Amino acid sequence: MLRSVPAARHRWLPWNGLARGSSRTPHCHAAAAAVSSWHVHDSSSPCASSWSWASQVGDRIQLRPFSAAPAIVGDGIEDVDDRRVKQMRRRRDTRIAQKAFMEYLHVTRGICFSDAEHMSKRSPIFISKLLEKVKDAAKEPTEEGEEVPFRSKVKKREMRDERVSKALVRLFNFHPINEFEPFFESIGIAPGEYEPLLPRDLMFLNDDETMLDNFRVLCNYGIARTKIGRIYRDATEVFSFGHGVLASKLKALEDQGLSKTSVIKLVMSSPVILVRDPNVELKILRWLDDVGIQRDWLGRFLSVKKSYNWGKMVQVPQFFSDLGFTNEVDNFTRNLRRGIFFLAEIGVSEEDIKKFVVSNGSILGSVQLKKPNSIMTHLSVGKKRLCRMVMEDPQLLMKFSLGAKVSRIPKVDLHEASFKEKVKFLQNLGFMEGSERMTRGLKAFRGKGDELKDRYDFLVKTGLDPEHVVQMITMAPHVLNQKIHVLESKISFLVNDMGYPLSTLRLINLEVL
Q: Is 387 inside any structural domain?
């Protein structure tokens, strides 16, 4: 049988466990000692003034955590909401306000659902102002002189949400709002910026159908709603265009040879382009045609976070044109562009390309290079070797121009090249060419000369004296046949684990260790 609500308010639950402290009042000791089974206590008794108490047998009595009865707060407990609870309450109020505002815009004002939803969710400052106006409605009403009816926490939240929602509906009905404020905020204009832009004689968005039509044209074209505010701020005339004018201007930009993505970047970075003549404003595109660069290539370098002055941008090529260097500049620029693409295709890093252009830009601009695949076929080399050849001798690019005959590079004897590297390495260490030490070292060493040098450098970096390293190599040339990580583990074992001084390693044969 279900218990009544009044009975539920008096339920207690014994919690087995050691009592870690004394009770809050002396009355609770006497009451707890008499408890040997389930009891019902009146909530007005002194024991009910505390959350829990410890009995003599180690049982602690406290309110049932799932009880429907409201907890009675004692004098020593402060009823202070946690910061996290307040944040959750504010977020709940914000969701209620967003929902009420969206219903007002869509149902009452007749704005399309997508626009109403965007405005309600993208205008947090305006929503906070609405909540500030109805903050008194969120407070729980007091019922003086009457017994306060029991309500659960869930019921209280629902009633509070209902009060806030009804208060907002009354506010919308009897105190009309300026709908342009949340609209401007939702498209990315801050409140301090949109105040001068507010219409003086209008309050409702539907009264300015021209602006809404142009706004939807931009949205349907693919421009983010939150970015349209920059267009409104920098080129307000766009939103007063007649039917079909804005769409035709966007189409005209595409007809200039730009993709839809490039047009969006162009409009976002330079909104005034929609007001001016694109043929006059974008003269730079004709210059790109002259130097052999596709027009849409420009869109790869546009940023919506920056603005561009296209009139000044075209002054640089115009300056060279006035000096009579039109053809020369065009050819040089075209060759330079091809040279950069050539370097990137053979595997040169971006940083090395910048350095190469700075130091050898005149070579790249003066020669029209063949395709990398063609050069690699004629030379019978791969990308890595071609890259190394070009970086070591940039003058080779002059031989790779269109029309020039490229001769096949003779094959290199890898064994002979490795042998020469070993000889050079040993000579740098002080070995005499043709000596017994040199012969012994050449027979013992395995690997390339650069690998041997890396292992030698590692031994020196560990703290060994270079003379001691040479002495180790003379005594046991096979030391350098071991990889660096093997040498590192052996040295770490001898020095850190065995306690040998670093200087004594020259007397130890690391090869047989």
A: yes
pLDDT of the residue at 401? 82
- Answer whether 408's CB lies under 8 Å from 423's CB: no
* In the predicted structure, residue 477 carries a pLDDT above the cut 60: yes
Q: Are residues 212 and 297 in the same domain?
A: yes
Task: Kindly report the number of other CB atoms within 10 A of residue 436's CB atom.
Answer: 9
Q: How many CB atoms lie within 10 A of CB 475?
A: 13
With a cut of 90, say whether residue 392 has pLDDT above it: no
Q: Which residue has the tokens 């002080």?
A: 430
In this structure, are 418 and 382 located in the same domain?
A: no
Number of Cβ within 10 Å of residue 112's Cβ equals 12
Q: Which long-range contacts (CB under 8 A, 24 or more apart) does 206-212 make?
A: 206/109, 206/110, 206/111, 210/239, 210/240, 210/241, 210/242, 211/239, 211/240, 212/115
| Residue 467, domain extent | 414-507
Report how far apart, in Å, the C-alpha atoms of 413 and of each of 377, 409, 418, 439, 441 are. 20, 12, 9, 21, 21
Task: Indicate the SS3 state at residue 105.
Answer: helix
Kindly state whether residue 231 falls inside one of the protein's structural domains: yes
Kindly state whether residues 91 and 179 are assigned to the same domain: yes
Q: Which residue did the predictor score with more confidence, 66 or 280?
A: 280
Alpha-carbon span 168 to 99, nearest angstrom: 10
The segment with the largest mean pLDDT, out of 9-18, 241-250, 271-280, is 241-250
CA distance 337 to 365: 8
Per-residue confidence (pLDDT) for residue 214, from 0 to 100: 95
Reference 69, options 154, 156, 151; nearest CA is 151
Number of domains making up the chain: 5
Between strands 52-54 and 59-63, the pairing is antiparallel
197 Cβ contact partners less than 8 Å away, ≥ 6 residues apart: 184, 189, 232, 233, 236
Asked whether residue 87 falls in the same domain as residue 58, the answer is no
pLDDT tens digit sequence for 208-224 = 999 999 999 999 999 99
139, pLDDT greater than 70 = yes
What is the Cα–Cα distance from 91 to 73, expressed in whole angstroms? 27
Tokens of 234: 């920098």
Q: Do 219 and 126 share a structural domain?
A: no
**Bridge-partner residues for 52, per DSSP?**
62
Inside any domain, residue 226: yes
Between helices 153-174 and 124-133, what is the axis angle to 10°? 100
- Does residue 407 form part of some domain? no
pTM of this prediction exceeds 0.90: no
Q: List, in order, residues 6 or more apart from 367 with CB less than 8 Å away.
A: 335, 339, 397, 398, 400, 401
- DSSP class per residue in 383-416: HHHHHHHHHH-GGGGGGGBTTPPPPPPPPP-HHH
Claim to verify: residue 389 and residue 285 sit in the same structural domain: no
Q: Could you please report the per-residue DSSP string of 3-54?
A: PPHHHHTT-EEEEES---S--SSTHHHHHHHT-SS-----TTSGGGGSSEEE
